[in-house]
Structure formats: structure tokens, C-alpha cells
Amino acid sequence: MLDEHGTVTEHKADNFELVDDPLEVAEDNAADSNANLVADQDSPTDATSTSPDKMQVVRDWAVYRYYFKSARLPLSLSFLGVSLLVAFCYNFPTLWLKWWSDANAVSPNNNLGFYLGIYAMLAVVALIGLMMVCWVMFVGMVYKVGEKCHNRMLDIVMRVPIAFFALNDTGKTTNRFGQDLQLLDTVLPMSAINTALFAGSCLVQIVIISYAANYMAATLPVCLVVVYMVQRYYLNTSRQLRVLEIEAKTPLYSAFIELLDGLATVRAFRWEQTLEKSNYRKVQDSQTAMYLLFCIQRWLNLVLDLIVAGLAITLACLAVGLKEKSNASSIGVALSNINTFNQTLANLIKAWTTLETTMGAVARIRSFVKETKVMKHPNGNLTSTPRSESLAGMLEFQDVSASYGINDDDLALSGVNMTIKQGEKIAICGRTGSGKSTLILCLSKMLELASGSIIINGVNVAILSPDQVCSSLNIITQEPLIISGTVRFNATLGNSASEAELLSAFQTVGIWDLIQEKGGLDAEMQPASWSHGQRQLFCLARALLYKKPILILDEAASNVDSATEQQMQDVVNTAFRDNTVISVTHRLGSIFCYDKVAVFDKGVLVEYDDPHALLEKPSVFAELYRESGAQ
């Protein structure tokens, strides 16, 4: 609970709720999503950051145009047109009742069926129109916009260099696909519907008021100017308060993510009470701006009530002063619409505020798609390039240098020159941060080169797309890739493979009996019931099932026992004897199974030779070998 200064005075950890109004909850959810926008502005190195006035982007019509264009123009026009029709049918009955009353005063009960039928028809059309508005928005527009925005962002993420993830917080990218898309699918549709309906209702009510009491038309321009000034002042203030609220919620969100990642450490060192106090302070800070936001919402209601009260008083005074030009039915219609105009106007401004806030999600997605730098897809073709079979797995690194983009002078790789012949088995070793995995990232085109070139099968990878490069690579990483699904699906990843091929691959790596024990190929794969070594053997079987010229083992055996490591090494030596193998390893016990060893130190290739030759002379490799205690 909050006191009069916006400070948290009481909280309940298991069910912390401060807001019960669904509209305010929607506004708060929309405001939360803007945390990424503020974070983008605060980070000068953010690849997706834009100009300092990005907060105002939701007022740019280009954002609305981007949204409605994604939903397709016919659907957008249908939505706006039907919304206006619903607003007309919802508000016009008050004027129709006036006409009915006037006609009934002249000829009682004359044309009763006609007036009653039109009245009922307006209600039915309003109901059907409302259903059509919801159908167009939720079935048509939401699906198309969500799908297009998701696919556009996914395409961008799949084509960004690895430096993007080094420069940007993972939480920002996750929020693009999580909270921003959730806003597009849930909050924004209702905000758009409410804004369209309330705007149409305000327009129709103004026309009805002016028609019923035509002398009120003279006051409407003044009223509209006042309302415009109020909403402009309110929106600007509300936007700034939301920014303040977001700035306070960003560390709260970051602390939650960090707590989940380090939960075991927190429990081990018994930091629960310290972190609880810290998080409580963050929650308290995040609620202060929310309290002020509630205050200006109450202020808005008060100001709008005063404006409408002024209109009602003006109408009453004019009706009394011009009673010879007024009649009871017209005054009744005007007063009825003025009374409802207050709430309609308040709802319009609230809905408009929510819409403008949630459109921030569209602005961020649009900015992410348009401004994120991606790797270009060249038109080269690895498979169609003429080459001899003896070059099928040949690799050349020619003066390769690479940086993660934070500082071009701080190179992760510097001047690497190395040639790997077809069928050679190469081990890459070095201390942590020496550039071993960076070399693999460059080879797979996940990290762009600062200089130099990498040649695969006589073709420079610079003219190839990442997909074309990866068509020659089988990569097994330190963490096994296991996807929710059956054993068969995880082995084939949607590709075709016969029962005999699957059986042969699993028998070769020695896990066929294990698969049978767990229910066979069509059983659901539960990673928790598989050891790390068994999952790595499964990935090795997948690589064996779809052989490619080059096999890369990036710390694949770092978290397995010695027996599993030897089993993996035996499979590599036999099943992949004709393939080029590159193994990044910290373990040097099986290093002599490789033809050559490449030793890296601080991004530089310091040694590249036969492991026996390096061990027999003073070398960095010999020092690493002795430090590892390998026998």
C-alpha cells in the first residue's frame, strides 16, 4: 500500500497488487514495455538506439502507418469505418427519440412500428457492428501484425553478427519478442478499439448537441480548444511520469533476472535478507511515479467534470435566456448527451493515452527492424563453385583479425594464418580468453572479420551467406542442442532419415540401448533424464546422420567424464576419419590423437605444429600440458 507521498507502507510478497482498474492495469503493462526504450537511450553503444527524442516517436504518424500497413489497408479501413458506424448507432437513438417524441406530440401513436423498428434496428446494427469491429481487430489485424512483426524481428536476429549480443543486453532482445509482442497481441487491440469507438462517440455527440441546441455550436470551438490543451498537457505529463516509472522498474527487472541466474549462490552465502531489503527498496522506488500517475488521472477526471459542468450550465442559461427558440425535447437531448459526453471524453483521453503508450511497442519493433545492422547476404555459392574433391574440407585462415565491436583496437583475434588440409584433425587450445571460440565464430560467420579472409574449399566466405557457410559445417557446442519433441525429431530436426540410418548412427555412438530403454525413437525426449555426456553423444549421432565436410567440436567434451570423452574421441577417429575435424579443448589428455595443435594466446596464434614436436621442446603448449596434469 502507498501513503500520501507515494511510499510503500505495506506489501504482500505472495500477491503484490496495487491496481484493480483493468484500464489502468493495461496502461501499466504498456508502460512496463517501454523500459527497453529508455534503456536504449541510456546506452550509447546500443545497436538499436536512436535519437534522444525517441520518447516522442509514438506521436509520429509513421508508427501508426507502419502498424496499419502491416495489418493491410482494407482491414484497417474496415476497422475505422465500422467503428464510426457503431458510434453512430450507439448515440443516434437519443436524437431519434426526440424525433419520435415530437411526432408523437403531433399524432399520438402514429407510425409506432416505424419508429420502434428503426430504434431496434439501431441497437441491432450497433451490436453486430461491435462484433465486426472485434472480429476485424482480433481475428484479422492482430494475427497479421503479430506474425509480420515477429517474422521481421526473427529475420533480423538470425542475421545479426555476434557483436550485436556483445553490445546489447539479452533482456532487451528478449523483451522485443516477449513483452512488446504481447502488447501488440493483447493491450494494443483493446486500446485501438476503445480509442476508435470513443472518438466516434465524441464526434457524434458533438454533432447531436449542436443539432439539438444549435446555439451551443458557438461554444464548441472554445470547448475543443480547452480539451485539446488539457489532453496535450495531460499526455505530456503522463508520458514523463511513465518514463520516470520505467527508469525505476528497469533495475527491478534486471535484479530479478540476476537473482534467478545466481539463486544457488545467494542460498549458499545466505544473502536472502540482504537481497530482500534491496529488492524492497527497488519496489518502493518504482511505486513513487505510479502514485503520481494516479494523481494526474484523478486531476484529469476533475478537469473534465468541470468542463462538462460548464457546458451544462451554459446550456441551461442559454435555454432560459432563449426560451422562445428552445423546446423541451431539444434541451433534453442536449443535456442527455452532455452528461454522457463527460465520461466519453474521459474514456477517450484514457484510451488514447493507453494507445499512444502501447504504440511505443510498435515504435521499438519498427526501430529494431529498420536500424539494427545485419550481415549482408552475398550472392556467392559454395556448392556451385568448381573444386576438386580433395579440397572438400580444406580451410585457410589468411591474416584473420576480428573484434567484438566494443573497441576496434581491442582485437579478439589478430593476424591468424593457418592452413588445414582435407581430413586433418586439428586441436585448438589456449587459456581462457585466448581467442579459441572466437576463431569458430569467425569461421561460421557469426562474427565479422576486421581484416583478412577465410577460405573454405577455395572459396572466400566473404561472398557466402551464413547459411551457405554452415552447409559445410557440423558444429557441436559445449551445451547440447536438445529441442522439445521426440527422439526422432531431435535427431533429424525435421529432415528425412530412415529407421536404418537412425539405428546405425545411434549404435555407432553407443546410445541405442539407452534410447530403447526410454521408449524408442518416438518417445518424448526428456533432457533432465539424460546425462550431459549422453546428450553430447546424441549430438554426435546427429552430426553423423548428416555428415558435412568439416566437424567442429567447441568444448564439446569439457563437461563429460573421461570415459565419455574417450568414447566421443573413438567415434571421431573412426566415423569421421575422412572429415576435417577442428576441436576446441581445454583437456589435453587426448591431444595426441590430433594431427596438429594450434595454440592461441591473447588472440594470437603462437604455435601450430604436431603435438609431439611441440611437447619435446620449450613451448607454450608444453607449459599448458604440464599445467593441466595430463598423462
From TrEMBL:
PROSITE patterns (UniProt xref): ABC_TM1F, ABC_TRANSPORTER_2
Organism whose genome encodes this protein: Lasiodiplodia hormozganensis
Membrane topology category: Multi-pass membrane protein
The keyword Coiled coil is annotated on this UniProt entry: no
Keyword annotations: ATP-binding, Cell membrane, Glycoprotein, Membrane, Nucleotide-binding, Transmembrane, Transmembrane helix, Transport
Name of this protein: Canalicular multispecific organic anion transporter 2
Location(s) in or outside the cell: Cell membrane
Pfam families noted in UniProt: ABC_membrane, ABC_tran
This protein's record includes keyword Lyase: no
Gene Ontology terms for molecular function: ABC-type transporter activity; ATP binding; ATP hydrolysis activity
Transmembrane spans: 75-96, 116-143, 186-209, 215-235, 299-322
SUPFAM superfamilies in UniProt: ABC transporter transmembrane region, P-loop containing nucleoside triphosphate hydrolases
Family under the similarity heading: Belongs to the ABC transporter superfamily. ABCC family. Conjugate transporter (TC 3.A.1.208) subfamily.
Matching InterPro entries: AAA+_ATPase (IPR003593), ABC1_TM_dom (IPR011527), ABC1_TM_sf (IPR036640), ABC_transporter-like_ATP-bd (IPR003439), ABC_transporter_C-like (IPR050173), ABCC_6TM_D2 (IPR044726), P-loop_NTPase (IPR027417)
Gene Ontology, cellular component aspect: plasma membrane
Residue intervals of the ABC transporter domain: 395-627
Domain ABC transmembrane type-1 per the UniProt entry, residue ranges: 83-357
